[in-house]
Design a protein that fits this description.
Order of helices and strands of chain A: HHEHEEHEHEHEEEHEHEHHHH
Strand content of chain A: 15-25%
Shape of chain B: globular
Structural class of chain B: alpha/beta
Order of helices and strands of chain B: EEEHEEEHEHHHEHEHEEH
Mean pLDDT of chain B: 82
Number of domains of chain A: 2
Strand order of the largest sheet of chain B: 7-8-9-3-10-11
Largest sheet of chain A: 6 strands, mixed, barrel
Helix content of chain B: 25-40%
Largest sheet of chain B: 6 strands, mixed
Oligomer: heterodimer
Number of strands of chain A: 10
Distance between the termini of chain B: 31 Å
Number of strands of chain B: 11
Largest interface: A-B, 24 and 28 residues
Low-confidence stretches of chain A: none
């Protein structure tokens, strides 16, 4: 019975102190929403990055050699013009190497009459298909004779096919890259978007020789993919590749490599490392945003309770026990936390989905930040809402009403 | 009350407000406590109303030593035995007259089933039946004081403690208030009135004068005087 009465008084208290109730609710709401949105963005980016890395298309028995020294992935490479087709041939001659795919890459516009789209154009050799195991669904793949004759032919991924030809059959049609027309001789099997929105089908493949002569007008390669006979041979093959390339590029003992490796293990290591770094960042940001939210709630509570000491005194004069006061303020805090929590979860969810929906930032909603911030805000509410009320209840009623 | 002492400690200073006050008030008494400000009247009333505890000495209310009661019991005493009327009204702001009057019943152990009806009755008794849903801010000083009197009466306590009930009122409202108290005494309530106004104090049958924390005088009016008026 007493509990219901105090609950009623709490409702009344919240209604009477509308201003404070509103501020506190907003405080809790923003605390929860900001944390969840930040964590959702963090997770979203993390998933996207990891996904992109996973989509580099590596089997366990292959690795890539990228022109230019330095660290994996990042840091602009110096001396990127040194890797040649000759290097690729020499690597293929190594005993443990099954295939090599020398490659050039350039992002550019591809045009079919009035339709155009921006895509990644790769200059590759016929071995690309074997190295990737990626089938042509329509037409044929690039052939050795296309390479030898530097033919202007192109194999399209599913995305440019859709964008340039709608539903029409693209085979035999001409598309323009820069100032040259290329005949479409094949289209690749569609892989579909990855979870994070990365589109592996957004690509066009032309013969490497054509790319060198007409598209990039560069003699050097951007990368060479090396496929070994067996996954266990990757380390020794890397050593051999290193030896060949250093010799071919006539590097002295003192100079650094002018190429770098991307290996499955390297990727895994990098993925793990970046995942850990991102986790650390997320934890840091979450902690800060929780603390800020907590401090806001705490301050509002401290001010509002101070204003209400007199009310507590009056209630005590007319028979409220200390426990009645505690119960009333406990209910008030819990109600505010619940209300703010529900609103905060709603707001956090809508912002997270909105960011994703309108392509502003990738987000990934998880339940942990909701739970964490909810518990934290409620705890703050309890500690800083009840403690001062309890202190006011412990004063003699005489002191309380005179304050 | 037996040799009550009360001192306040304030950053090293100890101020003794009440010095060995011994006082006995009977049921049905109409007592006024008079004295200049700072004499310790309000402190005395706070102790009498179980709102604070004496530093030393014992206070026996209705056979129970107040200093030995738990918070639970003290709250019950305040709730059931004492009705407070304050100079500063001490109404809950923003709460209607009706709900303010109900407050003691909220914390009552056995509240009547018709709480609202009771509150209406008491408010009617003080002439506020037309102001039930006004908040303190919408009421005049006199009306607010009548709400506090209604609040002090709703749980039907035997004792009414009034601290300067006329202090914030003009003389007309003050007179009204005093008439209400006079009426309550006749209904058998014990009334302790604190004031610095000797004219107000004259309403009581017994006037205790306090000066510097000690009882300076304790005079009873002749009972015949009162009965003569009846």
């Amino acid at each position: 019975m007493r509990i219901f009465k105090n609950f009623g008084q709490a409702l009344r208290g919240l209604r009477l102190n509308r201003g404070n109730t509103l501020l506190m609710t907003i405080g809790v709401m923003i605390g929860i929403a900001s944390l969840t949105v930040i964590v959702a963005i963090g997770f979203g980016i993390k998933v996207k990055v990891l996904d992109r890395i996973a989509n580099l298309g590596f089997g366990p028995e292959s690795f890539s050699v990228i022109a230019g020294g330095g660290k994996m992935f990042f840091s602009r490479s110096k001396n990127t013009t040194s890797m040649s087709l000759q290097d690729a041939e020499d690597l293929l001659a190594l005993p443990t190497v099954r295939l090599v795919v020398p490659r050039q890459r350039k992002r550019m516009q591809i045009i079919n009459k009035k339709e155009f789209t921006n895509t990644r154009v790769y200059g590759v050799t016929p071995d690309w298909q074997r190295a990737r195991g990626w089938h042509v669904v329509d037409g044929v793949f690039l052939s050795d004779s296309d390479m030898d004759r530097k033919r202007k032919v192109v194999v399209l991924g599913a995305t440019p096919v859709r964008k340039l030809f709608k539903n029409a059959d693209p085979i035999g049609k001409m598309v323009r890259l820069q100032n040259n027309f290329y005949e479409v001789i094949g289209s690749l099997q569609e892989k579909g978007l990855t979870e994070s929105g990365y589109d592996p089908d957004d690509r066009a493949l032309i013969p490497l020789t054509t790319s060198m002569a007409r598209l990039t007008r560069e003699r050097h390669l951007h990368s060479i993919k090396v496929v070994t006979l067996d996954a266990s041979q990757v380390p020794e093959t890397m050593e051999a590749v290193k030896h060949v390339l250093r010799r071919n590029h006539s590097l002295s003992i003192l100079s650094e490599d002018d190429f770098r490796f991307i290996t499955p293990e390297g990727i895994m290591e990098w993925v793990t490392e970046s995942a850990q770094a991102m986790n650390r960042m997320l934890i840091l940001i979450s902690t800060v945003s929780l603390l800020v939210g907590g401090v806001v709630i705490m301050n509002i509570l401290l001010v509002s309770i101070r204003e209400r000491v007199r009310e507590i005194g009056i209630r005590r004069c007319f028979g409220a026990r200390k426990s009645d006061i505690t119960l009333q303020f406990l209910f008030e805090s819990v109600l505010v936390s619940l209300l703010g929590g529900i609103l905060g979860i709603g707001l956090g969810l809508s912002i997270s989905f909105g960011l994703q929906r309108f392509d502003i930032l990738p987000t990934q909603v998880t339940w942990e930040p909701f739970a964490l911030s909810f518990v934290f805000c409620t705890l703050i509410g309890l500690v800083f809402g009840i403690h001062p009320a309890r202190k006011a209840a412990l004063m003699s009623p005489e002191e309380a009403i005179r304050s | 009350m037996n040799s009550i002492c009360k001192s306040y400690r304030n950053i090293g200073f100890e101020t003794q407000v009440l010095k060995n006050i011994t006082l006995h008030i009977n049921e049905g008494d109409y007592v006024s406590i008079i004295g200049p400000s700072g004499a310790g009247k309000s402190t005395l009333m706070a102790i009498a109303g179980c709102l604070s505890q004496p530093t030393s000495g014992e206070y026996i209310l209705d056979g129970e030593e107040v200093g030995k009661l738990s918070d639970r019991k003290l709250s019950r005493v305040r709730n059931e035995k004492i009705g407070f009327v304050f100079q500063a009204f001490h109404l809950l702001p923003g709460v209607t007259a009706l709900d303010n009057v109900i407050l003691p019943l909220v914390y009552s152990r056995n509240p009547p089933s018709d709480i609202k009806e009771r509150a209406r009755e008491v408010l009617a008794k003080v002439g506020l039946e037309h102001r039930l849903h006004h908040t303190p801010g919408q009421l005049s000083g006199g009306e607010q004081q009548r709400v506090t009197i209604a609040r002090s009466l709703i749980n039907n306590p035997p004792i009414i403690l009034a601290d300067e009930p006329t202090g914030n009122l003009d003389s007309k409202n003050g007179m009204e208030t005093m008439k209400t108290f006079d009426k309550l005494v006749k209904e058998g309530k014990t009334i302790v009135l604190i004031t610095h106004d000797s004219e107000v104090a004259e309403h009581a049958d017994r006037i205790i004068s306090i000066r510097d924390g000690e009882i300076a005088s304790d005079t009873k009016r002749q009972p015949s005087n009162l009965s003569g008026n009846l």
